[in-house]
Amino acid sequence: MRILGIDPGIAQTGWGVVDFEGQRYRPVSFGVIKTSSKDNLEHRIHSIAQQMAIIANEHGIQVVSIEDIFFAKNVASAIGVAKVIGALVHQAYQMALPVRLFTPLQIKQAVTGYGVAEKHQVQEMVRLLLKLEKAPSPDHAADSLAAAICFGANNHMQRMLHP
Fold first, then answer.
1. Most buried one in 26, 39, 95, 108, CB count within 10 A?
2. 2-161 adopts what CATH topology?
3. pLDDT digit string (tens) for 51-92?
C-alpha cells in the first residue's frame, strides 16, 4: 500500500510517501510544500491542495494520512491549518483517495509507543523504521512520514482485529 502522509501548515506543509507491505515500511520520497506570506490565505490554501494532488498523482498514492489539530496555543494559526486540512481532505476525495486524520498523540503512539514523545524521539523512530541514514529534514517532512507510518500501523492493527 502506498501512503501519503501530510503534516499540514500554511507556510510549510510536510509530505512523505511510504510503501507499507506486511509490517515493513519503505520510504519513497518526502519534502515540503512552501507558500509565500506575500500571497493571500486563499491562494496559499489552494496552492497546497494543488501541490498535494500533483504529488499524489506522481507517486501513485492509494491512501492519505493527515495529522489533525489536537490542541493549539495560537488560535489564529490553528484556524489556518484547519482550513488547509479541509482543502486537503476535499482534494483527496476529489481524487477518490481514502483519507484518515490522526491526532499528534495517535501518531506519536504509533511511531514511538509513547503518546507524549518529544519531537526528536519521533524523528529518530522514523529514521529507524524507514532505515534512513539520518533523520528526515525538515521537521515537517519527518512528521509527515510519521503520519504515513501511523496509517500503516493502524491499518495493520485493524486487519488483525477484524480479519
1. 108
2. Nucleotidyltransferase; domain 5 (3.30.420)
3. 999 999 999 999 999 999 876 677 778 899 999 999 999 999
